[in-house]
Amino acid sequence: MKYVLYILRFFYRIRFWLILLPVLAACYMIWKTRDIARYYEVRTTVYTGVVSGYDIEQASVREADWNTKNSTIVNMMDILKSEATLRRVSMRLYARCLMNGDSMKNNTYINADTYRWLMDRTPKYVLDLIVKGDEDKTVENFFDNMKPDNRDHLYGLFMWEASRYFGYKDLEQIRVDRIASSDMLKLSYQNSDPGITYNTVLILVKEFFDQYQTLRFGETNDAIAYFRRELAEAGTKLKAAEDELTSYNVEKRVINYTDETKEVASINKEFEIQYQDVLMNYAKADAAVSQLEGRIDMNINNMRSNSAFMEKLKLISELQTQITNIDAFGQKNEANLEKLATLKKALKAEERSVSELTKTINENKYSKEGIVSDRFVQDWLAQTLELSKAKAQKEVMEKWRRELNEKYTYYAPIGSTIKSKEREIDFTERTYLSLLEGLNSAILRLRQLQMTTNTLKVTDEPSYPISPLPHKRKMMVLLAFVCTAIFVVAYFLFLELVDRTLRDRIRAERITGRKVLGVMPRNSRRYRPFNQQAKEIAMHCLAKALVPYFGREKPVVINILSTEEGDGKHFVAQYLRDYWQKSGLKVGLLSYREEFNCRSESYLLANNLTDYCQAGDAMIVLVVHQPLTEESVPSPLLESANLNLMIARSDRTWTTIDQEVFEKVGEQSGETPLFLVLNQTAWDVTEDFTGLLPPYSRFRRWLYRLSQLGLTARDTKKNESGV
Questions:
Q1: How much is the average pLDDT of 204-213?
Q2: In whole angstroms, what is the distance from residue 507 CA to residue 524 CA?
Q3: Order of strands across the sheet with 516-521?
Q4: Do residues 642 and 671 make contact, with C-beta atoms less than 8 angstroms apart?
Q5: In 121-193, which ranges are continuous DSSP H helix?
Q6: 695: cis peptide before it, omega within 30°?
Q7: Which residues contact 707 (CB under 8 A, 6 or more apart)?
Q8: 60, 99, 372, 692 - which has most CB atoms within 10 Å?
């Protein structure tokens, strides 16, 4: 309860500051905002198609990859607010306003007064860059002549903080918000010129579409161009390698190297088998002939000396060689078969002719051993023919061996060369296919980007604003009033917390740590006729509060103390003496100024009052001691008294020295009560002890009832005496 009252009285004390300063601040804000600009707002909504769009790469509706989609939306918002985009908006807006403005009347591009302001600040060389009827060319001229120098008008127009409408500080106020989790972006912009505001949003949307397409397509177009260059180079290399392989095959007369080498290996395998058979037949026939010749050597010599016989053998050998070539290595076609049959007939005829010739030549019918030689000659002839056949086959086989060896020698380097060229072609081909796949992916990505970019649509077209937005002047005035009031409260609250002035009961008890027993009010200018009456009422309450601490022993000793001179010890003591004397009590007032010497031996060594001063027959003795910061009071005098009162002015600072002295007095008092009495208090503080002070008007009674939170109490008229 007391803290609630304390807070209410805090606000009551600062009521004039709390009203006056906020009112002055509000009036100043009203004067300051007398020419406040009226703002216009233009809004638009852009559909992006990022979340719900169609994906050509998957040929189906895209799955919810929210991180990627959210990043795309954020990128779009960043592009809208990027410095590059806003710079292009600034230059195009500047060109449009210069080209379409009118200094005499407002239009949908710029107001007349804004156009006049703009023309006054535009240098002549900038006006010379304007191409009438061609906004794009004008913007291009602006960018071509822009220099990164703070003295350059075009460059500074965007960078200067004082640049209205066209500067970065103004354009960055454009708001870009995503509508919930949808594909929609909401753009809004506020400015004081409706035409500039409207055209700013129009230009921003157009520049955003261009910038977004440039960023999205530029990277993909570069990739497509790269793949096409690399693909053309790889295709050229592949064709050159294939042509080189073809020329090499033609040069080496190779149609199918693998099949041809397989065929050579197969022929070689068959050749080796036949060659072994031929060698065996040759060795067998040679051995048989040698054996037979040993038995019939005379007949053999006759035959060998016969030219006709040798010619026949030579012819048989040639026929046998031809037959062997055709039979072993020739193709089995009709012509070869007919030729082979003819050769075999000729061979048989020649063999019969040789056999007959042998019979004619043979003269000796017996061999060396006396055996008939005709049979041996026939055997020898047969074996000789067989040997001739084997020898012919051997010659043919050796010829073919040489040819096969030549084929192996021929095909061996061709194979490694062909394999090397084929590996080169294969690598180049795989590179070509990989590049082709990359090109297809890039083209597909380009089509995808074209689809997603084409989904950028303005769903709510910007509208030219006609009516300005409600200005915030009232809010600003109210804010100035409230902020000033908060500052006043905070300032005085800070003073309330750090101020060490003993003003009222709560603060005095919080600072000193002792209970406040009573107060004495200061003189009031407003209620001057009632000052004495208020003091008497306060003294009555103080005296009444002292009575419970009187003992049975007489006299009752009350020590009147203070830490400094001028706190009002004698003032309070005199009022107490007069009050009790009016009640018929004998009261003695002893002061350190007249009745005793605070530096005397009797005082310093005294154990009670009678040791240093005589009180007579007084029932109550008020002893006013010296200021405690100058001289101390002996502890026995403080302990032997009935009551110790520390008098302190409520309007002075309670220093740390005062607090140390006060705490020391409390220790010296022992069990004797020590209380604080505030002097020179305000009337509202005094009323905490006395109740309502005079005058008792209806208004004062109503205020007092409110201060005591008697919100529903009935008004009862108080006794005019207040006693």
A1: 86
A2: 22
A3: 516-521, 674-681, 643-649, 556-561, 620-624, 587-591
A4: no
A5: 124-127, 135-145, 153-159, 168-171
A6: yes
A7: 5, 8, 9, 12, 684, 687
A8: 692
Which residue in this structure is represented by tokens 């042509």? 243
Q: How far apart are CA 339 and CA 336, in angstroms?
A: 5
Structure tokens at 659: 């607090």
Domains of the chain, residue spans? 1-36+482-498, 37-221+454-460, 257-451, 499-691
Backbone angles phi, psi at 389, to 5 degrees: -65, -45
Collapsing DSSP states into helix, strand and coil, what is residue 547?
helix
CA of 67: how far to CAs of 177, 180, 224, 343, 449, in Å? Answer: 18, 15, 27, 91, 19
CATH code of the region 499-691: 3.40.50.300
Please state, as a whole number, how many other Cβ atoms lie within 10 Å of the Cβ of residue 480.
20
Residue 8 token pair: 């209410």
Residue 183 token pair? 């594909």
Say whether pLDDT at 720 is over 70: no
Pick from 16-30, 418-432, 435-449: least confident:
435-449
Residue 312 has pLDDT above 70, yes or no: no
Do the beta carbons of residue 92 and residue 140 sit within 8 Å?
no
**Residue 298 to residue 295: CA distance in whole angstroms:** 9
Phi and psi dihedrals of 367, rounded to 5? -90, -175
**Amino acid, res. 611:** D
Average pLDDT over residues 58-85: 74
pTM over 0.70: no
pLDDT of residue 449: 65
C-beta separation of 682 from 525 below 8 A: no
Closest CA to 244 of 458, 72, 418, 408: 418
Cβ atoms < 10 Å from Cβ of 352: 10
pLDDT category of residue 365 using cuts at 50, 70 and 90 = very low
Confidence of residue 48 (pLDDT cuts 50, 70, 90): confident
Burial class (CB in 10 A: 0-12, 13-18, 19+), 470: exposed
Q: Is 554 exposed, middle or buried (0-12, 13-18, 19+ CB in 10 A)?
A: middle
State phi, psi for 711 to the nearest 5 degrees.
-70, -30
Which amino acid makes up residue 464?
Answer: Y
Instruction: Sort strands 674-681 and 175-178 into parallel, antiparallel or unpaired.
Output: unpaired
Reported as a single tens digit per residue, the pLDDT across 214-257 is 777 666 777 888 888 888 888 888 888 888 878 877 776 776 66
Tell me whether residue 556 is exposed, middle or buried, using C-beta atoms within 10 angstroms of its C-beta: 0 to 12, 13 to 18, 19 or more.
buried
pLDDT value for 562? 94
| Other Cβ atoms within 10 Å of 567 Cβ, number | 23
Q: Are the C-beta atoms of residues 505 and 51 closer than 8 Å to each other?
A: no
- In sequence order, what are the beta bridge partners of 207? none
* C-alpha span between 52 and 72 (Å, rounded): 13
CA distance 205 to 85: 10
Mean pLDDT of the chain: 81
| Token representation of residue 233 | 């180079």
Residue 43's φ and ψ, nearest 5 degrees, are -125, 155
* Residue for token pair 């060109």: 95
